[in-house]
Amino acid sequence: MTNKKTDIGIYIHIPFCIRKCAYCDFLSGPAGEQERTEYLTALLQEIAASGRKEGGPYRAKTVFFGGGTPSVLPGEQIGKILESLRQAFHVAEDAEITMEANPGTLTAEKLSRYRAAGVNRLSLGLQSMKNDELRLLGRIHTREDFFESFYLAREAGFDNINVDLISALPGQTCGSWEETLEETAALKPEHISAYSLIVEEGTPFYKMYGPGSSGELLLPGEEEDRKMYRRTAQLLGEAGYRRYEISNYALPGKECLHNLCYWTGIPYLGFGLGASSCFEGRRFSNTADWEAYLKNSENLALVRTVTEELTEKSLMEEFCFLGLRLSEGIDRKEFEERFKRPFGEVYGGVERRFVQMGLLEVRGRRLRLTEQGIDLSNQVMCEFLL
Ligand code: SF4
Asked: Which residue numbers delimit the Radical SAM core domain (predicted)?
């Protein structure tokens, strides 16, 4: 009999922020100490319930605290959550344990407690090096706060740090974006995520910059956005970062293992308000209703709603369109091993068409987007839906 456990990723949602940013549509908001304590109790109950039901055959190789701003919680509470995870699941000795943190919420003491609790990777939400852009975004911090947090994190021993950036802000020029990139890269964080702003419905930004608004024209156009994207790859490439996913860059060996779980089809379990999972052939989401979550977190059947039963067809589609986000692209041999069907039989036509158009290229076993294909990635990926 073998004891081999299946690797999974674990996501923990911490829905608290000091203040809501103007562009944010994440499930997050300000909360008092009592709400935070109640939430922690519910979260620990959910983790324990899942451990009793699902813990046995799995090994967590990554844990990711996202939000919200997990760093509003003190080290002691993060420690409690990790302790409960270790009781419920086998958490690998060398698991990557990431915590999102915002400048303006960190102190030396907090950071050393996070480390002592087992957090070994920090993801800092900087977004821009320009104070006027940070104000526009409604961020709680300045560039100076970011520098302070970054150095404090290094002093606390964090040797794996991601910095999140956002481009294509209203009124932003390519020159201003390049300065943000250069200053960030000069600090040599191990990882940089650089996404373009999406103006989401329901946010204050949507009223100010959404379709038909007076500010709409301030948003960089598609061509300017593409130019910023190309400069990102170029500048960060020169600074030693490899683009390993459409919007993610890492120093060698410092790719985010948790995100790679999502992109390579490794199952993951999400805990907390509104958290999503893809596990044992299903996608499901936790309730986003605060009262319902606090009341029912121990009863997984009441907290979770199945959103999709994964079929072979949806798994094949996902294998392709998530795999194509990666710079290495998809491994056609692995497709055949996983689905017991030749890749060409399912996707031969699409592959030939896009290779001819110069949007996809074949590299040995792998099929990947070309530079031109990255510009049109959404259209290409859509064609992989069966
Ligand atoms: S800190 Fe992040 S999660 Fe919180 S409001 Fe701002 S963008 Fe949203």
From this structure: 2-242
Residue 66 CA to ligand 1 center (angstroms) comes to 10
Residue 341 DSSP class: S
Please identify which residue in the block is written with the tokens 């890492």: 250
Residue 4 is predicted with a pLDDT of 83
Q: How many helices (H) and strands (E) does the chain have?
A: 16, 15
Which pLDDT band, with edges at 50, 70 and 90, does 3 fall under? low
| CB of 105 closer than 6 angstroms to any ligand 1 atom | no
The single residue listed with the structure tokens 């302070």 is 148
Query: Which numbered atom of ligand 1 lies nearest the CA of 102?
Result: 1
Predicted confidence (pLDDT) at residue 293 exceeds the cutoff of 80: yes
Out of 24, 73, 124, 128, mutate this one to test ligand 1's pocket (max ligand atoms within 8 Å of CB): namely: 24
What does the block give as tokens for 279? 């596990």
CB 217, CB 202: distance < 8 Å: no
Q: For ligand 1, is residue 67 a contact (CB within 6 Å)? A: yes
Q: What is the pLDDT of residues 198-212, one digit of tens each?
A: 999 999 999 999 999
